[in-house]
């Protein structure tokens, strides 16, 4: 027979913390998914900084045989050509920086750290004006969904972070 000992830091320290544990975990998973996606974007961007890889992608897009009713493929080709391969290093670095922020938020929330609640409120809240602008000027359902999710996250975390907390237990 083995006894299961739970690590004290991973156990909720109060009823308030316990009642919000699931919500914090869901937000942490959301941040983890965003982190993984941004790391993939960074890898792809760093791969495109090599001229031959960049040219292969542009060539492949130009010769892709799809029904192209909206010209999306050609806009992508034009965008890639206007950026050029050297700009993808900067795109990759920005993606990694955001991935690090999301990973920090997610890890802190998963561990139910009070500082992570406020860090996520500030980091997520600071992007809401930009997301609102983007959603209004270039509407997509995905942008609207992300905007609504981020507003809900900020409201939820402010409500949690503002609740009084009992003093930390000495274990």
Task: Describe the structure using short key phrases.
mainly alpha, 171 residues
Q: What can be said about this structure in brief?
A:
The protein has 171 residues and is mostly helical. Helices cover 75% and strands 0% of the residues.
Q: Please, could you describe this protein's structure?
A:
The protein has 171 residues and is mainly alpha-helical. The protein is 75% helix and 0% strand. The chain is elongated, with a radius of gyration of 21 Å. It starts with 14 loop residues before the first helix and ends in a 10-residue tail after the last helix.
Assembly form of the protein: single chain
Shape descriptor: elongated
Radius of gyration, Cα only, in angstroms?
Answer: 21 Å
Query: Counting H and I runs of at least 4 residues, what is the number of helices?
Result: 6
- Residue-averaged pLDDT, rounded? 79
Distance between the termini: 25 Å
Q: What is the chain-wise order of helices and strands?
A: HHHHHH
- Determine the structural class based on helices, strands and strand pairing: mainly alpha
> Which stretches are poorly predicted, pLDDT < 50 over at least 5 residues?
1-9
DSSP strand tally: 0
Beta-strand portion reads under 5%
Profile the largest sheet. Answer: none
Query: Fraction of residues in helices?
Result: over 70%
